[in-house]
Amino acid sequence: MAKILQRALDGVLTAAQTRAVETGIDVIGDIAIVKLDDSVKDQGPAVGNAILESMKNVRVVFDQEGGIEGDFRLRKLRHIAGEGRTLTTHRENQLRFTVDVERCYFSPRLSTERLRIADVVQPGELVLNMFAGVGPYSNTISRRKRVKVYSNELNATAFELHARNNRLNKVEDLTVMFGEDAMDLQKSIDVKFDRILMPHPSASDRFLPVAAEMAKPGGRIHYYRQVSGYDLQEAENELSREVRAILGHAPTFRMRKVREIGPRFLELAADIQLAS
């Protein structure tokens, strides 16, 4: 995707200015999101129009100002070209997702991770997604494995779109929806789960004890975290210490690098198996 962006900006920005488009480009449905350095902010409309011209599937371009912020992990967006809307339909893994890119969290860069999780789910498992967003993990699991997923999302806009996506992907009969603070889920759900997803890497540490309580003996938890480290080994050591400190015992788990977020800043997953 970075090479596509470079080609789009050839002749619009200098080579140095192109490098100041910080993290490439995210395309969600027909909406493109770039992150412009302050030095090229005034070139935003030119950048946006160049993207529209070179990427025929894109109809809207935004500049993301700052990082992913808040409990709902939202982007602050500045419209720089194309249609004036934030709603789109994104396609991945043979599924469709209606997404509001400003009012909901969604990353197209996690499509492979969502597929990987779906592929390890076993027939007959009962799954809980504590931070479901518009449903990309939950729908992928239900559609591919035909298992029931309890799907929780506190953001009202994302919850509404998740319900719409359940219908789009024909998994409404396999999805049980909750719109609660994940800390309170035990009050509403009186079943135990074979597998629990925690795709909220900036804050999932607060909820890991709740997940452990809601899992069956021998259950599995997919625990995502953003971790700083000089290298992968240092980041994995930090995550290992965190998991053991929170759970208070020595669970079985293995760690994986999901993606690089920035210099010496990684998103890792700890795939935890609780004692039987």
Outline the fold blueprint.
Elements: H1 2-9, H2 15-19, E1 21-28, E2 31-36, H3 44-54, E3 60-64, E4 77-82, E5 87-92, E6 95-100, H4 111-120, E7 127-129, H5 136-145, E8 149-152, H6 156-168, E9 175-178, H7 185-188, E10 193-198, H8 208-214, E11 215-228, H9 232-247, E12 252-262, E13 265-273
CATH fold group of the largest domain: Rossmann fold
Give the strand order, joined by hyphens, for the main sheet: 9-8-7-10-11-13-12
CATH superfamily of the largest domain: Vaccinia Virus protein VP39
Which class do the helix and strand fractions yield?
Answer: alpha/beta
- The amount of beta strand, in percent, is 25-35%
Describe the protein's architecture and organization.
With 276 residues, the chain is an alpha/beta fold. It has two domains: 2-85, 2-Layer Sandwich (GMP Synthetase, Chain A, domain 3), CATH 3.30.300; 107-273, Vaccinia Virus protein VP39 (Rossmann fold), CATH 3.40.50. It has helices spanning 2-9, 15-19, 44-54, 111-120, 136-145, 156-168, 185-188, 208-214, 232-247; strands at 21-28, 31-36, 60-64, 77-82, 87-92, 95-100, 127-129, 149-152, 175-178, 193-198, 215-228, 252-262, 265-273. Strands 9-8-7-10-11-13-12 form a seven-stranded mixed beta sheet. It has a four-stranded mixed beta sheet with strand order 1-2-3-4. The chain has a two-stranded antiparallel sheet with strand order 5-6. α1 (2-9) packs across α3 and α4 (111-120) packs across α5 (136-145). It is globular and about 60 Å long. The model has no long low-confidence stretch (mean pLDDT 92).
